Amino acid sequence: VQFSDNPNDVTDAHGKQGAFAPNAQMPQTFTGALIGRIGNGAPFAIGPQTSIVAPGSGVLFLGVNDGEFADNKGNFQVIVR
Fold first, then answer.
1. Calpha distance 59→13 (Å, rounded)
2. Which pLDDT score, from 0 to 100, does residue 65 have?
3. Which long-range contacts (CB under 8 A, 24 or more apart) does 8-17 make?
């Protein structure tokens, strides 16, 4: 994904190493990382893991860890089983 208007601000699901967004859902997790949240629960990092155990049950929301979404481009492919 590209997480800003700068074409160099691209990353995979891990997030851009050394880049942090203070207004992001998870400000101490790399900007652009794949994160999740179940229902109204706390967000959790997913990143490039091939498998995770959900920390609860309910509706799963997936997103990009960033403080400004209007300039984001691209997507991650995620398979939920």
1. 21
2. 97
3. 10/74, 12/48, 13/46, 13/47, 13/48, 13/76, 14/47, 14/48, 15/47, 15/65
Work out the mean pLDDT of the chain and round it to a whole number.
94
Residues forming a β-bridge with 61: 37
Report the alpha-carbon distance of residue 52 to residue 68 in Å, rounded.
26
pTM attached to this predicted model:
0.90
Q: How many angstroms separate the Cα of 79 from the Cα of each of 12, 18, 21, 71, 76?
A: 16, 27, 26, 25, 10
The answer to whether 6 touches 31, Cβ cutoff 8 Å, is no
Q: What's the pLDDT band for 55 if we cut at 50, 70, 90?
A: confident
